[in-house]
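Sample intake sheet
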Amino acid sequence: MVTLEKVTKIFKKNRVVDSVSLEFPESAVSVLAGPAGSGKTILLRLLSGELKPDSGRIAAKNRRSAAYSDGNADIFQNFSFSDLTAVWALMYPGFDAEKFKSLLSKNGIEWNARISSMSQDVKNRLSDSLVFASGAGILIFDEPLQHVAAEMKPEFMDLLRESAENGRTVIVATQDITEFEPVVQYLSVINNGSIVVSDEASRLLSSHRLFPGATTISPDFRVIGPVVDERLVETEDEIGRKATLKEIVLGYVNGSSS
């Protein structure tokens, strides 16, 4: 488990992460969703140790190491894959070189390929392959499907599931949760640097409904926010219509922006 307690990060007097308290469980796929500029990437960089919080505390169970993929393989462009294997083996004692080679092969990446000449799609796959093979206890991915071809996405989802089943804490940040709905177990929504909701995905789905915008809603129900021409309401009553996770994210983002 990874725990954040009142974590704050300030850039140029702006609280890009504002007193965030949150838990990411082990053996599960957690998704951090929110619009562009909401603070997702900064929060991931804090989790990976790349940035330090200005206040608050981040703790990982048994001090587990974190491996972070943001798709930026440019820093490795002068490395050979043999160099990468050696460096990551030093960084992560559990690094599985054979798994790394296997993932490269599955992704159509030749062992002697030049990183500097790779497309962004291929660089993403390289970065993700390093993380999956790292052996780290915490695997972090920032918008991992942004440049991935459609035919490669099922394989990526299978790797997320496999990593969680093997006891890893898997954290994915995305603007659009739609493609992750089949694998997400925990969902947190961030907007303007603050967490506006965080819970098990199944619980969120069972406790939120959508009503047409003109519907009179009982004061006993909590109105979260607008979703296009409907309103998201927190209730477990079998009324209105069921909301998808994407609609739940939109309702909380819109509600916290108003």
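Comment: The chain is about 30% helix and 30% strand. The chain has a mean pLDDT of 90.
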